[in-house]
Amino acid sequence: MMCAGTIVQFGIRRVVIGEAKNFPGNPDFLREHGVEVLVLDDAQCTELMTRFIEERPELWNEDIAVPQVES
Question: What does pTM read for this prediction?
Fold first, then answer.
């Protein structure tokens, strides 16, 4: 939501999303605020994101604000 809010705040009119299978983001929010959203559903992008999430879950969770579990 932070990225979507920033896009609207700074008046970015068009956003191209490589893939939305691993993380859909907020395309409806963007569209509601007049942003043109193009989702490519690119297979290579999906594969890259899937691999990144599997290999570096701690970085991914930090990026999407999943609370850290303390051990």
Answer: 0.79
Residue type, 48: L
* pLDDT (tens digit per residue) in 27-70: 999 999 999 999 999 999 999 999 999 999 999 888 887 877 77
The domains of the chain are located at 2-63
Spatial neighbors of 70 by CB under 8 A, at least 6 apart, are none
Is the CATH number of domain 2-63 3.40.140.10?
Answer: yes
The Cα 4–Cα 2 span in angstroms is: 5
Residues 43, 21, 64, 10: is their CA dihedral positive or negative? positive
